[in-house]
Amino acid sequence: MKLNTWMTSKEIASIANVHMRTIERRRNTILLENPDINWFKMESKPYLYHKNFLEEFISPEVFGLLDRNRQLSNTIKCMHRTGSLEQHLSFLKWDYFVTISYKDALSSKMCFSAMSELYEKIEAYSFSGDCRMFFTTEPFSNRKGYHNHLVLKMDANQNTVSEFVKKYSPVGIVDVQPYDYELAGVFYTAKDKHKNDEWDLLGNNLSSEGKELLRNYKTA
Fold it and tell me: In whole angstroms, how far apart are CA 155 and each of 22, 93, 107?
């Protein structure tokens, strides 16, 4: 069973072993309860359903296994991007994968500046050892404004990092997860960097090779 980010009702039915009418009834109920949910692409023909909708029909354990396999498959594909900036960065040590979804509809430049300022706070704080941040700013798919994804090397526990990011970022939802090398967090962060310049690599001890590589990609 292959799990895609967006699937048809037929694909959902096949994976969950339920009738398509059951899927449609559950979709309609969810939309009545939460009209702003972003699980459904109603403008598509046929309708498309986000993979998270599957949890309405299968156990969290089974869904977790399916989603893990999907992410591992993506990682294998990503590792074939030989010679790319993201492949180079994937071999460096990272501690956390962070997503920041701001409450207000911030512009891309505001989000970019927020990340630069956050890094300055991290570097200025009394954390020991090297610190490094690779981030990107990208638009929301379901509302106006931009958000940030970043991978972070920071010598602090998860709770401390979460509180620190919340304190020094504009108000919003902050999700901090331990970096999992099997799930291609660097590649996910880099997925849209070819579209614009709203990304950067920052660190207090970047090697000369890393700096040169960054300059090459910034000017390419």
Answer: 48, 11, 30
